[in-house]
Design a protein that fits this description.
Layout: H1 6-66, E1 71-78, E2 84-92, E3 98-107, E4 110-112, H2 115-123, E5 134-135, E6 142-143, E7 148-155, H3 163-170, E8 174-181, E9 187-191, E10 198-200
Antiparallel strand pairs: 1-2, 2-7, 3-4, 3-6, 3-8, 5-7, 8-9, 9-10
């Protein structure tokens, strides 16, 4: 129990009232000061976070560009040393490896499944006929930067007499389209000896896939 008289307690409370009023009057300014100090700090934090995000995106794009494959289809009829060899090939002219997905070969609008099917359709090959044909697997293989892979070639040898001339005459009518992906799973398709690949989300699954044999 307090020994202080009620009158004294009331006087103390009244004496404190002006101080409380002064504190209450300055309290909004103090809060505003904290707000003014905090806003720049928040803005700086947001700018730093945005800069970090932009830098991370730029770094990722640089990594993707450094590993960007660029696959092109081409056909030829002679080797570098002058030997006649009618061939179909894919070349990676990019900076990174290319993982070849689906490849489709067609002649006069008809998709074909193998080199034998192509020679039968274009060049008079008959089942059981002797010939020398060189083929390589092209689907689901990786092409290094600068690598060329002939997936079909027909040399000018006695066994291929006649067929080499016919294949050479129609090789520009052979249409090849291929899908390939980078190591980052970015994918593109090409059709014929075009310059610019077309980006796709994934390699098509409805093509007539070319087989080595």
């Amino acid at each position: 129990m307090s020994d202080q008289a009620p009158e004294t307690q009331n006087a103390d409370r009244l004496a404190d009232t002006p101080a409380l009023r002064r504190i209450a009057r300055w309290l909004p300014f103090a809060m505003m000061g904290h707000f003014i100090v905090g806003v720049p700090a928040l803005l700086i934090s947001l700018v730093v976070a945005y800069g970090t995000f932009v830098q991370a995106g730029a770094t990722q794009r640089m990594q993707q560009a450094a590993a960007w494959p660029f696959v092109a289809y081409q056909t030829g009829n002679y080797t570098a040393d002058g030997q006649r060899l009618v061939n179909l090939s894919l070349t990676n002219n990019g900076l990174g490896p290319a993982i070849i997905g689906a490849v489709e070969v067609s002649f006069r609008g008809r998709a074909l499944r193998s080199p034998v099917d192509l020679l039968t359709a274009c060049c008079g090959y008959r089942e059981g006929q002797a010939m020398q044909l060189r083929t390589s697997a092209i689907v689901n293989v990786a092409l290094r930067p600068g690598e060329e892979l002939m997936f079909m070639s027909l040399p000018a040898v006695t066994a291929n007499a006649g067929m080499v001339d016919r294949l050479d005459a129609v090789r520009e009518q052979i249409k090849v389209r291929a899908c390939y992906c980078s190591i980052f799973d970015d994918c593109w398709t090409i059709e014929g000896p075009q310059v610019k690949p077309r980006p796709v989300k994934a390699c098509p699954t409805n093509w007539t896939v070319w087989r080595q044999r």
